[in-house]
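Subject: sequence -> structure tokens, single chain

Hey, anyone have a minute? Need the predicted structure for the following. Not urgent.
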Amino acid sequence: MKVVIMGCGRVGGMLAGMLDEAGHQVTVIDIDSWSFRWLPRSFSGKALVGDGTDVETLRMAGIEEADVFVSTTQGDNRNVMAAQAAKHIFNVPKVVCRIYDPLREELYKSMGLETMSPTKLGASVLMNIVLGKGG
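Reply:
Had a minute. Here:
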């Protein structure tokens, strides 16, 4: 499977490493080359410095052949812009977008984007721990 990940922070870097280790072709895009320090030493994929909201950068990352696109930056707006481009311009079969704001996450989900809100996920896990149901 060919995967393009926008954002190489802790989550993007870990996801890239896991997918790479599982044998997938992974390209990670980040605007800051220092972010690639989050990739494991064994990472054999491609690290590309660039803006994942830019169509040419996405092309250089191989978006036209990608099976999956994941946006994991700190910015909800950037994540949505890139996810929309991957889905509607490049017709990537699976597009997943991290959205911190739970209200926005519901809106974008209703528009057909696959989303994940770490805010809602974290609150749910904490609620289960508080109620003694485990993590």
